[in-house]
Amino acid sequence: MKVWKGMLLLLLVFSVPFSALAEGGEVEVLHWWTSGGEAAAAAVLKEMLEEEGHVWKDFAVAGGGGDAAMTVLKSRAVAGNPPAAAQVKGPQIQLWGEEGLLTSLDDVARAEKWDEFIPKAIADIMKYDGNYVAVPVNVHRVNWMWINPEVFAKAGAEIPTTWAEFAEAAEKIQAAGFIPVAWGGQDWQEATVFEMIVAGVGGTDFYVKALVEADSEALGSSTMVEALKTLRMIKQYTDVGAPGRDWNLATSMVIRGEAAMQFMGDWAKGEFTAAGQEPDVDYIAVPAPGTSHQFLFNVDSFIMFKVRDPKDQEAQKKMAGLILQPEFQEIFNLNKGSIPVRVGMPEEPFDAVARRSMKDFLAGAESGDLVPSMAHEMAVMPAIRGAFLDVVTHFYNNPALSAEDAAEILANVVKASW
Ligand code: BGC
Questions:
Q1: Average pLDDT for residues 332-356, to the nearest whole number?
Q2: CA 235 to CA 369: how far, in whole Å?
């Protein structure tokens, strides 16, 4: 009888998942990390949370840039049923804070001393009314150009550092039978390239005036006209399959050697890494033309919504704490292509691209060339960003609209949504 009881107990122990045994809670996590590199990075967080005995309920909403995920999040919140955690970034964290739906993470922040290793500029974005309501995950640099060196070599082209050099290189690449630029024809991707151009063509002060302060004079200026013309100039070097293409499919065109380059943030590096490619061997990453000293930053973060069950609350806090642990910061960022948001992390595990990012981040902070990405929700509230995206994508896709008219529309429309 005793033997049977013992066996029954053993059976029970092995058939119950570890998480339930540890009586952990559950965190439903809304995010948009669905590409190869992104999914590998997200899996790190899931595994670490599960090792702590909690359950990760995955709520992935595909769609680069996160616009689809934000729409879903709003409808869940309106229905009174938000997920426990959601990938939300930048100034809009304040909007969620105003709704009064967020859990304060101050106790975790205090216990783990977040203020000591999160750069102040980033910590401020994570706080609502002085309290931490979001936890930062990483720092992405937006203004990168991803290059297939073999394609460049076959075409006899040089890596460009200005837009004039870009046009020269693109001509050669096209003549050699390759697609010069792998283009993802979606509004947020077009805005991503647009903002790199604005930074390069206009310089940092202009970038801030136009895309952060949404200053009408800057938006309607001849510098803006030049930036828009540059954006349009690139179009002739893209392929007919560009409209609607996802960013990671564009990256794989560069990986496969179908296309010579892509303008995209360093989440693209996650795709090269997932494909087993190495920087300076299989691919080269350099800042977009004219932006070598600038760092357009994009910080991913999670907000946590109030949940009732104390076990779920515990799981949420655990997740927030884990995110800033050095071990997580290292493995996650190696997969994601970004750099740690936690300062003081060792450089050794990171490759040359990440190290350059780390160096340029600090240098940019010193010189004033560290600026928030408009396209990636770091610079302006969603309504203004939406106005930017609409005009930029409309201009890019409508040859009949002149750059002069588009700049004027930008100045008016953006002002109206301020
Ligand atoms: C996010 C990245 C993500 C990229 C593509 C950006 O806005 O910050 O984490 O990889 O969009 O979806």
A1: 98
A2: 28
258-277: pLDDT as tens digits: 999 999 999 999 999 999 99
Spatial contact of 320 and 49, defined as CB atoms under 8 Å apart: no
Taking the C-alpha atoms of residue 399 and residue 249, their distance in angstroms, rounded to an integer, is 25
**Residue recorded with tokens 């136009």:** 210
Which ligand 1 atom sits closest to the C-alpha of 270?
10
pTM of the model: 0.94
Q: Counting atoms of ligand 1 from 1, which one is nearest the CA of 377?
A: 7
Question: Is the distance from the beta carbon of residue 337 to the nearest atom of ligand 1 less than 6 Å?
Answer: no
Residue 21 has pLDDT above 60, yes or no: no
Q: In Å, how far are 185, 215, 219, 228, 291 from 392, measured between CA atoms?
A: 12, 16, 12, 8, 20
pLDDT digits (tens, 9 = 90+) for 386-411: 999 999 999 999 999 999 999 999 99
Q: Which among 45, 88, 146, 298 is the best mutation to test ligand 1's pocket, defined by most ligand atoms within 8 Å of the CB? A: 298
Burial of 18 (0-12, 13-18, 19+ CB in 10 A): exposed
DSSP-derived secondary structure for 62-127? --GGGHHHHHHHHHHHHTT---SEEE--TTHHHHHHHHT-BPP-HHHHHHHTGGGTS-HHHHHHHE
CB atoms closer than 10 angstroms to residue 375: 26
Ligand 1 neighbour 65 (Cβ under 6 A): yes
